[in-house]
Specification:
Pfam families: DUF2804. It comes from Undibacterium rugosum. This is DUF2804 domain-containing protein. The chain is about 0% helix and about 55% strand. It has about 325 residues and is mainly beta. The strands form 2 sheets. The protein has a 15-stranded antiparallel beta sheet that branches. A 9-stranded antiparallel beta sheet has the order 19-18-17-16-24-23-22-21-20, with no helix packed on it. The protein is globular, with a radius of gyration of 19 Å.
């Protein structure tokens, strides 16, 4: 039997400024930690240095996969974007830029209605926003000879997951994970044009106070009728969920069996509730290592296909997952 998740509250904090921990269906109006009460409140300087706020967008078609992120780490900010050609099995466009504190990145606390995240450095820009008139999400990017104009359509998409929990090494954290949405628009790389119609988009909006050192493994893939989000690391199983025929289903702890030194080998991912068993075969990967003396990151995101099965509940028949395009990730940050 599928257990329905409760509706998302309007805010991460209640009227007494206590954290509204839990997993929910739908989106809050804002993720705003102002007023956070004890025992999770820390010194203002600690909160500035440990506040991490990001927006990640994925665009997937039969031809390409695009990953785009804007990240505010409290004391600075950064952004990246890439296009992976699935047929050539290589990255054909890539942008990565560290910004200037308080100047180059802006992320609103609204994760859904009213959402807007913006990064601009010199003539390069990335802008993601919710368009109130249509209810769509729009991504506009211009970085050198790399362009994206994408619309994610919400009318037949399943509702998002909203999760609020404690963060290992930090205090509290919240994230909104969208289901898969139909795409319109195009991607242009050095004169080549890729149409997004027929593809699937999704996004992630996360906001909280994380540890000085934070690590995670992650997996995500979506079609309109089936999708999942899995994480093992600093946020436990809080954001583990399955979207199946419009239903949002809570998943247990995720276990990632892979070779960190051979990330292009097959990955095996299962959840301990017996509802998901998948094999992931990478087609290629995007990786970046940074060492900024006071901060460092090690990031690898393989792109590929998932095969296996999922279940709506323990006694339900297994639903096959076949060649579902998505990503895994192995990430460590000292920030």
């Amino acid at each position: 039997m599928i257990t329905s998740l409760p509706e998302a509250p309007a805010s991460v904090l209640d009227e007494k400024n206590a954290v509204q921990f839990g997993q929910y269906v739908g989106a809050p109006e804002r993720i705003d930690w102002t007023g956070l009460a004890q025992p999770f409140r820390r010194h203002p300087l600690w909160q500035v240095l440990h506040h991490k706020h990001w927006n990640y967008v994925a665009l997937a078609t039969d031809e390409i996969f695009c990953g785009i992120a804007i990240v505010d780490v409290g004391w600075t900010n950064t952004a990246f974007a890439y296009v992976f050609d699935r047929r050539a099995r290589k990255i054909i466009a890539s942008y990565s830029q560290d910004g200037l504190p308080g100047l180059t990145a802006r992320l609103r606390p609204q994760p859904a209605a009213g959402a807007a995240s913006h990064f601009q450095f010199l003539h390069n820009r990335i802008h993601f926003q919710h368009v109130a008139e249509s209810g769509q999400y729009q991504l506009s990017l211009a970085c050198g000879d790399f362009r994206i104009e994408a619309h994610m359509l919400t009318e037949d998409a399943a509702r998002p997951l909203f999760a609020v929990g404690t963060a290992e090494g930090g205090t509290v954290h919240a994230t909104l994970k969208s289901a898969g949405m139909r795409l319109q628009g195009s991607v242009s790389v050095a004169g080549r044009q890729f149409e997004l119609a027929g593809g699937i988009g999704s996004y992630d909006h996360s906001n909280g106070f994380l540890g000085r050192e934070t690590a995670w493994r992650w997996a995500s893939a979506h079609s309109l009728g089936l999708g999942f989000n899995l994480q093992a690391g600093y946020f436990g199983q809080n954001e583990n969920a399955l979207w199946l025929d419009g239903e949002l289903i809570k998943l247990g702890a995720a276990h990632f069996d892979y070779q960190p030194q051979r990330l292009m080998d097959s990955w095996h991912i299962v959840t301990d509730d017996g509802l998901l068993n998948l094999h992931f075969q990478p087609e290629g990967l995007r990786q970046e290592n940074k060492n900024l003396l006071i901060a460092a990151s090690r990031y690898v995101q393989p792109i590929g296909c998932f095969n296996g099965w999922v279940k709506a509940h323990a006694s339900a028949p297994a639903r096959p997952v076949t060649q579902l395009v998505g990503v895994t990730e192995d990430h460590f940050s000292r920030w």
